[in-house]
UniProtKB/TrEMBL annotation:
<keyword id="KW-0732">Signal</keyword>
<feature type="domain" description="SusD-like N-terminal">
    <location>
        <begin position="92"/>
        <end position="219"/>
    </location>
</feature>
<dbReference type="Pfam" id="PF07980">
    <property type="entry name" value="SusD_RagB"/>
</dbReference>
<dbReference type="Pfam" id="PF14322">
    <property type="entry name" value="SusD-like_3"/>
</dbReference>
<dbReference type="InterPro" id="IPR011990">
    <property type="entry name" value="TPR-like_helical_dom_sf"/>
</dbReference>
<dbReference type="InterPro" id="IPR033985">
    <property type="entry name" value="SusD-like_N"/>
</dbReference>
<keyword id="KW-0998">Cell outer membrane</keyword>
<feature type="domain" description="RagB/SusD">
    <location>
        <begin position="306"/>
        <end position="521"/>
    </location>
</feature>
<dbReference type="InterPro" id="IPR012944">
    <property type="entry name" value="SusD_RagB_dom"/>
</dbReference>
<comment type="similarity">
    <text>Belongs to the SusD family.</text>
</comment>
<keyword id="KW-0472">Membrane</keyword>
<protein>
    <recommendedName>
        <fullName>RagB/SusD family nutrient uptake outer membrane protein</fullName>
    </recommendedName>
</protein>
């Protein structure tokens, strides 16, 4: 649905005609419509194909980004009151789940598009644009690595394919397990970093850079527990990219600083550029009682718990940008022509229901002590005062803070380098005291906590917690968080091995005999 380029101009997405799963060779006739063999003859045309790969990063009404928000609800830090979010909070996941199927489909559609573009680039004869062709191939390699990293993050053992689909008999396999996927991410990210520029200007702003490619490489190295390699990659980014943390944490999520500073890779959104180019963040994350005439229409399915918000140090400068601390409520009607303002409070009534945690329906609208709420609504994503079909905020996927915390983790686990440097830079920006003198296990715990408070609502905590956890082992951050959630809120759920990895979708298993289900889900 949403374009990845700036300025936001809707390009012709011809690649959707290219990668349809069955090529013309599978048909008895020779139709004269556009296909890869007749269209992609120049770098300009190839760029249209690359645009199509970017497009899925913010695709669909409940597409790539929203599916990840639903997955986050498995941990219990982010909560929802209906449909997917609620079921994931309850641990009710199955291989036929619609969110898993959608995420899987989008990811492999984009990977197949990337495979096609890479193949076309390798055979393209456009000597005057050779450098552009190489760059576009590098973008496709980055995007293939990006999508495969997303699949690795949730499924462990997704099937690997690096050739575009030519016929229905060509089915990928996951026989190589996560090892094969990680090695492919390494190869693609390194190749992309060799040819991609450090930055762009003009209409190309928002495309993948060499530093985004190296960030994906570092994340894969952390997943692979190649600590020394991850440290080296992070060192390179920190020392040579010129990228610095914003002084103001909120700049990561506002409109004025899109595609700048520490924002290393983001999905572009703009309803102004095109009426169909909006995200549904506000619809899913805005406060339940935000007045509809101010733009509050939607479902308000997702928030964080009161306890999670309360865990922040009161001096933490991230609070104001991370959460909605106050807003006008429509629950009590207007007073003197204005909606009363409500403020977040750690002592407000709170429960996991739809209306648990918003201002009481019988609150006195003239008594500030009663105008309080307990739910932790997302300030990172919501655009208060804007109708959800007119949203402009981009979706952030890679930030420098992730690299800095990765550096500290790699140093801590490898015993090499300054293990406090990265995490303390993140904490300094938040206005928190630096860490020092911690043991390896204590710093490991501190980095996890910092990740949670830095990245809540950014679709990364379920993968990060499970990456650092083993069922019944030490450490088991994911199991600890889920068990705490179950106990704290008396949730009818039992921690199980299946909570630590998503199942491969049923449709894939039914249609592809080359794929084996994850062990926990057999």
């Amino acid at each position: 649905m949403n374009r990845i380029l700036s300025p936001r101009i809707k390009y012709l997405l011809t690649l959707s005609m290219v990668v349809v799963g069955i090529s013309c060779s599978d048909l008895k006739e020779n139709p004269d419509f556009i296909n890869p063999d007749t269209f992609y003859k120049s770098a300009t045309e190839l760029q249209l194909g690359v645009n199509g790969i970017y497009d899925d990063i913010n695709s669909g009404f409940s597409g790539y980004f929203y599916d990840r928000y639903v997955f986050e609800c498995l941990t219990g830090e982010q909560i929802g009151w209906e449909k997917g979010p609620l079921q994931y909070n309850l641990g009710n996941v199955n291989p036929a789940d619609e969110y898993i199927e959608a995420y899987w489909s989008i990811s492999y559609r984009s990977i197949n598009r990337a495979n096609a573009v890479i193949e076309i680039a390798d055979g393209m004869k456009d000597p005057s644009n050779d450098a552009l062709v190489k760059r576009l191939k590098g973008e496709a390699q980055f995007l293939r690595a990006f999508y495969y990293y997303g699949l690795l993050s949730y499924f462990d053992n997704p099937p690997l394919t690096i050739k575009s689909t030519k016929g229905i008999s060509e089915l990928p396999t996951n026989a190589g397990g996560k090892r094969a996927v990680i090695d492919q991410i390494y190869a693609d990210a390194k190749a992309a970093a060799e040819v991609l520029p450090a930055s762009y200007s003009g209409p190309d702003i928002g495309r993948a850079t060499k530093w985004a490619a190296k960030a994906i490489l570092m994340k894969a190295q952390l997943w692979d527990e190649k600590w020394a390699d991850a440290k080296t990659t992070a060192d390179d980014i920190i020392a040579n990219s010129g990228i610095q943390l914003f002084d103001n944490f909120g700049y990561n999520f506002d409109l004025a600083h899109e595609n700048q500073g520490e924002r290393m890779f983001e999905g572009q959104v703009s309803a102004v550029a095109n009426a169909n180019e909006y995200n549904v963040h506000s619809a899913h994350f805005n406060p339940e009682d935000y007045p509809s005439d101010l733009g509050g229409a939607g479902w308000s399915w997702l928030s964080a718990t009161q306890e999670f918000r309360s865990a922040y140090d009161p001096k933490d400068k991230r609070i104001d940008a991370t959460f909605i601390e106050s807003y006008p409520t429509g629950r009590l009607g207007k007073v003197n022509g204005q909606y009363p303002m409500v403020k977040w409070s750690p002592t407000a009534d709170f429960n996991l229901s739809r209306f648990g945690g918003i201002v009481k329906a019988d609150a006195n609208p003239t008594d500030p002590k009663q105008l309080v709420f307990g739910k932790a609504w997302s300030g990172k994503l919501v655009e208060l005062g804007t109708n959800w079909t007119n949203t402009e905020k981009n979706t952030i996927y890679l930030r420098l803070a992730d690299v800095l915390l990765g550096h500290s983790e790699a140093c801590n686990e490898s015993g090499q380098g300054d293990k406090f440097m990265g995490v303390n830079k993140v904490r300094a920006r938040a206005g928190l005291t630096p860490l020092a003198g911690l043991s390896q296990s204590a710093l490991r715990d501190a980095i996890i906590k910092e990740r949670m408070q830095e990245f809540i609502f950014e679709q990364v905590m379920y993968p990060e917690l499970r990456r650092k956890s083993k069922p019944g082992g030490q450490p088991d951050y994911l199991g600890e968080r889920i068990n705490h959630y179950i106990t704290k809120y008396t949730v009818g759920r039992t921690l199980k091995p299946r909570d630590y990895v998503l199942p491969l979708p049923l449709k894939e298993l039914q249609g592809n005999p080359n794929v084996t289900q994850n062990e926990a889900w057999k």
